[in-house]
Design brief:
Layout lengths: L4 H9 L4 H23 L6 H28 L3 H5 L2 H16 L33 H28 L10 H12 L12 H32 L2 E3 L9 E3 L14
Antiparallel strand pairs: 1-2
């Protein structure tokens, strides 16, 4: 197979062909592994384990950098790609490492955003292949989005508070606990930030919890109501799998339904 810009662009976005699945599943695994390394690094470990984790993190970040450059090189409109949502997320994923070389304060905070790269792969037939209903897929997507936001906030609050408040924010679990009780506005008060940035993050967590959780639950209810009178009939034209019970043609592409 001749390697061309079009081929690289296709397989970096493809979730259906065997090669596309291998490439993108590998990226998903690396994102999850990288996020797991961040969590483990919040716990006391031996020098040998820390060395292995650092080497693995450097290797993964270099793979992400090569991937970003390939996506940029193969993009049809590079300027448009640079300012696209996924490009910004990809850039944030690799920026802390390379900016950290020149020691810019707080730039390593951005590394916790790496988990957001998985948003590109939220596809029922790719990540959620074992889920057979539209409602189940929607519910799973909402849970993942909430998890990703909590993970990012937890990483940020840990990174900010642990150096100045290590007795309270000892490990990542403490940060997770604080993020959940803050975003759900329970606020037990047994874990509190002391830095100005930590308090600002707390305000953002509360605002996110107030705005995001009702919106996501409302979207779930709306989608469930919408699909209540639909049946699973796969369109041979575009693949849309849910249509009205009495539908004769696909509402997206107009193909006759069997």
């Amino acid at each position: 197979m001749v390697i061309t810009r079009e081929n690289i662009d296709f397989y970096l976005r493809d979730l259906q062909t065997p090669l596309g699945k291998i490439i993108n599943i590998s990226i998903v695994v690396l994102v999850m592994l990288s996020s797991g390394i961040f969590v483990v690094q919040t716990y006391p470990t031996s020098e040998s384990i820390s060395f292995v984790l650092n080497v693995a993190d450097i290797l993964i970040i270099n793979i992400f950098a090569v991937e970003y450059l390939l996506r940029l090189w193969s993009a049809e409109n590079r300027i448009q790609y640079i300012f696209s949502f996924y490009s910004i997320i990809d850039l944030i994923a690799i920026l802390p490492f390379f900016m950290g070389i020149i020691d810019i304060s707080y730039i390593r905070l951005l590394r916790w955003f790496r988990i957001l790269r998985l948003i590109r792969y939220i596809d029922r037939k790719f990540l959620f292949g074992h889920i057979t209903t539209e409602d189940g897929a929607i519910f799973t997507r909402i849970l993942f989005i909430l998890f990703a936001i909590i993970f990012v906030y937890s990483g940020l609050i840990y990174q900010v508070e642990h150096p100045v408040n290590p007795q309270v924010f000892t490990t990542f679990v403490d940060a997770i606990y604080f993020s959940i009780v803050t975003m759900t506005t329970v606020g037990f008060g047994d874990v509190t930030p002391v830095s100005q940035i930590g308090r600002l993050l707390t305000v953002l967590m509360i605002l996110t919890g107030i705005a995001l959780i009702p919106w996501q639950v409302g979207d779930l209810i709306k989608r469930i109501v919408k699909t209540a009178n639909e049946v699973e009939t796969i369109c041979p034209g575009c693949g849309l799998d849910f249509h009205d019970e009495d539908a004769k043609f696909c509402k997206t592409c107009g193909t006759k339904l069997s």
